[in-house]
Amino acid sequence: xxxxxxxxxxxxxxxxxxxxxxxxxxxxxxxxxxxxxxxxxxxxxxxxxxxxxxxxxxxxxxxxxxxxxxxxxxxxxxxxxxxxxxxxxxxxxxxxxxxxxxxxxxxxxxxxxxxxxxxxxxxxxxxxxxxxxxxxxxxxxxxxxxxxxxxxxxxxxxxxxxxxxxxxxxxxxxxxxxxxxxxxxxxxxxxxxxxxxxxxxxxxxxxxxxxxxxxxxxxxxxxxxxxxxxxxxxxxxxxxxxxxxxxxxxxxxxxxxxxxxxxxxxxxxxxxxxxxxxxxxxxxxxxxxxxxxxxxxxxxxxxxxxxxxxxxxxxxxxxxxxxxxxxxxxxxxxxxxxxxxxxxxxxxxxxxxxxxxxxxxxxxxx
Length: 366
Fold this sequence. Notes:
It contains 13 helices and 13 strands.
């Protein structure tokens, strides 16, 4: 069988990109189709055959693919996948919108229905620093994108959800059933260390919905050291806000990130994610996670055993959780925390994906 893998974009290496890389490792002969590729940030894909869309050649596309979100429906519909038997789209935006033949089975591994056109559409427009007239004009293309997104859900034969949270949202917005297969964390990359330094850590893209502003404001008041790994549009603003106890490290290598994680006191995770790989990477180092009580964190963090939840995305709620953690820090068992993370190993993910593809292929061809 000929298999194709379709990704929204490959510009920064995050959780969705790790899933794509795992799919590539599972199906190394599969061609990868994506709207934009930034080769500098995607060295892990150096052996892959990657096909990009016309957006690849547009100005600043590799660094600011968001500028072309309204063109992406056309980009994905333009890909010719007629020679493939199975198409696996990994989608949180437009990848699932590819057009396939009736004889081609299309499986979508859905990280999330597009948040910026569904449940978070109003919040996204408010959060981004844009002139009022631009925000008003943005409502119409988002409306059109919402209609297209709903339409293209019917092009998928089978949905996989990356969490129960995403499964509920697929049912609400697409009226489709799905099977949950959790993403994986490569626990072999991480280890528990007896040495611990006096800093907290936060990791992720520095964009509005990730809520790194809560971290900066809370740690400004607490005056406790924290290291922040990541880059993004919010970085200049966050740096201006931050006091000297907050250190911005930008992008780092996987090895450097693992080293910093294993020596940290705990990970701070203030965002609402559909799943979230970073908390599991921290737990693979035996580190507790101080997480917002919502989304995928509810399926990975065990309150009081592998971390502590805070109920509201406010500075006070986060500070309260950090204070609670400091009082109970010695009660967390690093070995038990790592053992919990091992439930999300790559081998478990691989087996479930392969079993899903095989069983649905038989069903599809009855």
